[in-house]
Amino acid sequence: MSEILVVGSLAYDSIETPSGKVERALGGSANYFSLAASLFSKVRVVGVVGEDYDQNHYDLLHARGVDLAGLSRVEGKTFHWAGSYEGDLNEAKTLKTELNVFEHFNPNLPEHFKDSSFVFLANIAPELQLQVLEQVKEPKFVGMDTMNFWISIKKDKLIEVLKKVNLVLINEGEAKMLTGAENAISAAPMITEMGPDAVVIKRGEYGFALYTKAEGFFILPAMPIPKVIDPTGAGDTFAGGFFGYLAAQKTIPTISSLKHACIMGSIMASHTIQDFSVTALSKVTMSDVEVRLAGYRKVIAL
Amino acid sequence: MSEILVVGSLAYDSIETPSGKVERALGGSANYFSLAASLFSKVRVVGVVGEDYDQNHYDLLHARGVDLAGLSRVEGKTFHWAGSYEGDLNEAKTLKTELNVFEHFNPNLPEHFKDSSFVFLANIAPELQLQVLEQVKEPKFVGMDTMNFWISIKKDKLIEVLKKVNLVLINEGEAKMLTGAENAISAAPMITEMGPDAVVIKRGEYGFALYTKAEGFFILPAMPIPKVIDPTGAGDTFAGGFFGYLAAQKTIPTISSLKHACIMGSIMASHTIQDFSVTALSKVTMSDVEVRLAGYRKVIAL
């Protein structure tokens, strides 16, 4: 089993959905990612929190064996995002983004993090993603995410990162925005032409499309969930399940393991959306995963 | 092999999409359905056209062995629909609906149509769907489609039809509208509670979700198509491929044949969207279907 290094946000989120609302609940890409990935593999987190960050939220990751040596606590407040979802829950409307301590974040890797085999650059500024890559020695497999904000204002830097990664995980709207393509199917090969060998386009309630230069498309639906409470963190959870699964394999990623990793990402994300914040995700056990995986296999079985 | 009776529209469509436009091109649910279904099974059409209906358009179905004895030609003009699609092509904006000869349509079945084993009630007024059902003797399997217009203004009649059919094919937006559900996953079991044993929710570029009372969900993606020219008729083509496949089987529909029928529907629809009107669909051969089916199996194969 190999270690996964993740760099991303640790945040407090205030969220409103048709099912209710929460104030300053635990969030952030690194939290969702780590909780999902740590079910399968060892995880190392790089990030920053403020003085208001709750001890219980350190403990939550610590109890899952996550190495927090790269987590710095600095003066000021933790990153805060407020958003709301309406109707079909497919898109969040951002109400407030308070970067706080994240504004001056400079990811510095503890020495023992530098030999990590798997690296996931969650959705942070492309310069910071590059800064992390410069510090790791010889990663076997690097993945990244991004978002509309960076595509609009930092596209050149983003394209530099794309050249240095093996895989991109990106949502459908952002894949179209990045490439100018009309749909996910035409966007995927345009993304791999930018550098990575593989791209996973996350399609929310519709599942995912994996595209590899070598083998083309692998597309499957999401686990059917009748009642979605809060979709926040689903994409980061997908990435966590995906990397957690990959890093737990004995070989370096193959087409076959990438496919299974997508399914594991999907299964993990299907838990996250069943409650606010990390409430459902943090309770998931390996046996829950196996039960849901069996259900999923039935849904797609001919 | 059993005969399929279809009742629906034969129309001329004026359509604009980001790829171009066509004026008064052949359309209508019965045309798309028949062209798709006739690749697999014998089809009998019930419908009405006006004096302007082109002989070539009779010939097109006739050449595919479709029985046109139930097609009446009356004074006046053929049903005309004008619509446009923008951006992601997921929704048509209706610009004009001229019912013309369709306004006084009363489906009367030729005697030899009454013993049809398979019946598909395409998207027409629920009263007309009932009128057809009253005339068929002992169909083995009846399916129906509908649309937002009938859900808004004829919901009671529609619910009467739902009680008399084995299966509903419906698009995702309409499934939510019919049930008030938030998503397709919660809508599906609500629809089967209204009567049918099975429902297929058509999700456009995202594929389909089959739900049966007996076995729950079967969900798969659509065939990936990088360039969609015109999505008009995709749903009716899906229904045609679906029924064509089912009626060609030796047994009455089973869960397994319903699943394969969904895939065949999907494969047929993936051709329709590659050109305007029935241009691509009318050229599809069995060998094209086999090639695409092999490609599709690869896309979903673990």
Give an account of the 3D structure.
The structure is a homodimer. Chain A has about 300 residues and is α/β, with parallel strands linked by helices. Chain A is built from 10 helices and 13 strands. Chain A has a single domain, classed as 3-Layer(aba) Sandwich (UDP-N-acetylmuramoyl-L-alanine:D-glutamate ligase), CATH 3.40.1190. Chain A has helices at about 30-35, 55-60, 125-135, 150-155, 155-160, 170-180, 185-190, 235-245, 255-270, 285-300, and strands spanning about 5, 10-15, 20-25, 40-50, 65-75, 80-85, 90-100, 120, 140-145, 165-170, 200, 210, 215-220. A 9-stranded mixed β-sheet of chain A has the order 5-4-1-8-9-10-11-12-13, sandwiched between helices. In chain A, α1 (about 30-35) packs parallel to α8 and α9 (about 255-270) crosses α10 (about 285-300). The first copy, chain A, is globular and about 55 Å long. The model of chain A has no long low-confidence stretch (mean pLDDT about 95). At the A-B interface, α7, β13, α9 and α10 of A face α7, β13, α9 and α10 of B.
